[in-house]
Request: fold
Amino acid sequence: MNPKVYTISAKVWRWQGQGGWHFVAIDTQTFHEIRQSFGKGMVPITLTLNGAKLTATLFPHLQTESYLLAIKKAWRQKLDIQDGDTIEIQFQITQK
Reply:
């Protein structure tokens, strides 16, 4: 059985702390669906972003009932992604 493919559209935003990290937030409905089947903690994924195949980890953000996905600087530079852009991401959980 193939793993479920999730497709989201989300706005890139910059963390207000040091380091200039950029993230997108995974919507609450998807958060609950993944958490129910995967459990607690970080979630390893493979994703497609602007045609690029990448690997990453979803970080739970319990205050907002979402997962955060860091959009790495190298990705932003290579794929011309800026703070405030709305991007479409397709992803699958890579292990359970």
Helices lie at 28-38, 73-79. The radius of gyration is 13 Å. The beta strands are 6-11, 13-14, 22-26, 43-49, 52-61, 66-70, 86-93. The domain at 6-93 is CATH 2.40.30.100 (Elongation Factor Tu (Ef-tu); domain 3).
